[in-house]
Specification:
Shape: globular
Strand order of the largest sheet: 2-3-4-5-6-7-9-12
Largest sheet: 8 strands, parallel, barrel
Number of strands: 15
Strand content: 15-25%
Distance between the termini: 5 Å
Helix content: 25-40%
Bound molecules: beta-D-glucopyranose
Mean pLDDT: 98
Structural class: alpha/beta
Radius of gyration: 21 Å
């Protein structure tokens, strides 16, 4: 056993998202989001689950912040629900929505917990979807009007901002696979969503610079899984490379850092991008302060000429989480190292990492050893990344609380705190206790 010691000032946090925990989606004048609409349409979510109540965090935020304090969290990543602020996505402002996030931010600061705010975690105002949502070029303006207003209202207290959460998932799971809101199945729409999210992101970064927020930092959070070739063959290597460029950080960081889409996209998928997309690339290339990396799992990729970009995933017999995702900590290192080597960001944050397991309450306790193992092995790789030159400054476990796991409803639990959905009682799981010790010692035994 050895002690794994993290750098001084390492930021330990936990993450959540508005629609997944808040509940009361229409309270106090808020407008419906696309997730409200999608989850209320039958057949879209497991068991017909919706975010109507979720963790009732909208009413219990104080209790939840007390829990964060008890755990010793240094930072908390949450998202703002756009349609609480602008019920129609633009135009009329709902002060009561601002009030909620004011209360939340002030309570966090009182508890000495640094807020990291995600401006968009998939819950687009439904009124904007009626105008084409992310496929409409104007969304870059609608979004920046909203985000700029957030900087003005919260920038005195919130210093760390994330423009978009996992834009790949928004684009492809929401517009190509149809499994997430808005439930479309159109590859052309997906690529226009990629492109418009990039435009919206960069316009927002520019607006942020103009606001001149003291000590303010802005970045973007990207989804990743480690795609390794199934064999040494040239074909499988190429399939894995394309999967990486398409689904991981390069799809967004290449335009942001280099002003061009990755070569695989240019070669094989540019026909799906909006007409004259090249004209926007100069504007999209815009300096950011940090990159947010989300990582959960890995897979092996094999050539498959029938699937999009020519790859399919194959089993390699590794243990899996309750989501059916392979546990592959080594891939976490590869992703972190890769992002540093390819784009050399000033700072990197792990904005999500964690696992769903089949947790059981026994005598008011939850013994989730598997989650502790998962976290240990991944934190070991995060430390290895730091030791090998990655500018990793912080880590946010997904998630603080069990919550509404999108199309899976409440059937999957990712929290380090258990939520009994009938009573809303919270129980800190063993993994929460363990994480709390890691934070306290800034290290763990491995
Ligand atoms: C998302 C979270 C989600 C988690 C687990 C990420 O894709 O940002 O909202 O709950 O993964 O699926």
């Amino acid at each position: 056993m050895s002690e794994k010691v993290f750098p001084k000032d390492f930021i330990w946090g936990a993450a959540t998202a508005s629609y997944q925990i808040e509940g009361s989606p229409l309270a106090d004048g808020a407008g419906p989001s696309i997730w409200h609409r999608f989850s209320h349409t039958s057949g879209n979510t497991y068991n017909g689950d919706t975010g109507d109540v979720a963790d009732d965090h909208y009413n219990r935020y104080k209790e939840d912040i007390a829990l964060m304090k008890e755990l010793g969290l240094k930072a908390y990543r949450f998202s703002i629900s756009w349609s609480r602020i602008f019920p129609n996505g633009k135009g009329k402002i709902n002060e009561k929505g601002i009030d909620f996030y004011n209360r939340l931010v002030d309570e966090l600061l009182k508890a000495n917990i640094t807020p990291f705010v995600t401006l968009y975690h998939w819950d687009l105002p439904a009124a904007l979807q009626d105008l084409g949502g992310w496929t409409n070029r104007d969304i870059a303006y609608w979004y920046t009007d909203y985000t700029d207003y957030m900087f003005q209202r919260f920038g005195d207290r919130v210093k760390n901002w994330i423009t978009l959460n996992e834009p790949w998932v928004m684009a492809f799971v929401g517009h190509f696979m149809g499994e997430h809101a808005p439930g479309m199945k159109d590859l052309y729409a997906s690529f226009s969503v990629v492109h418009n999210q990039l435009r919206a992101h960069s316009k927002t970064v520019k607006a942020f610079r103009e606001e001149n927020i003291k000590e303010g930092k802005i970045g973007i959070t990207l989804s990743n899984s480690s795609h390794d070739p199934a064999t040494d063959s040239q074909e499988d290597k190429e399939a894995a490379r394309l999967a990486h460029e398409w689904t991981n950080y390069p799809l967004f960081l290449n335009p942001i850092y280099k002003g061009e889409y990755p070569s695989g996209i240019k070669e094989h998928a540019s026909e799906f991008l909006p007409h004259n997309y090249e004209n926007d690339l100069e504007e999209i290339k815009e300096k950011i302060d940090f990159v947010g990396i989300n990582y959960y799992s890995g897979d092996l990729v094999k050539l498959d000429t029938k699937s999009f970009l020519g790859g399919k995933t194959v089993e390699r017999g590794l243990p899996k989480t309750e989501m059916g995702w392979e546990i592959y900590p080594e891939g976490f290192y590869k992703i972190l190292k890769g992002v540093q080597e390819e784009y050399n960001p000033k700072e990197v944050y792990v904005t999500e990492n964690g696992a769903a397991f089949d947790d059981k309450v026994v005598n008011q306790e939850v013994h989730d050893e598997k989650r502790i193992e998962y976290l240990k092995y991944h934190l070991e790789q995060a430390l290895r990344a730091i030791q090998n030159g990655v500018t990793l400054k912080g880590y946010f476990v997904w998630s603080l609380l069990d919550n509404f796991e999108w199309a899976w409803g409440y059937s999957k639990r990712f929290g380090i705190v258990y939520v009994d959905y009938k009573t809303q009682k919270r129980i800190i799981k063993d993994s929460g206790e363990w994480y709390s010790q890691v934070i306290k010692n800034n290290s763990f035994e491995f």
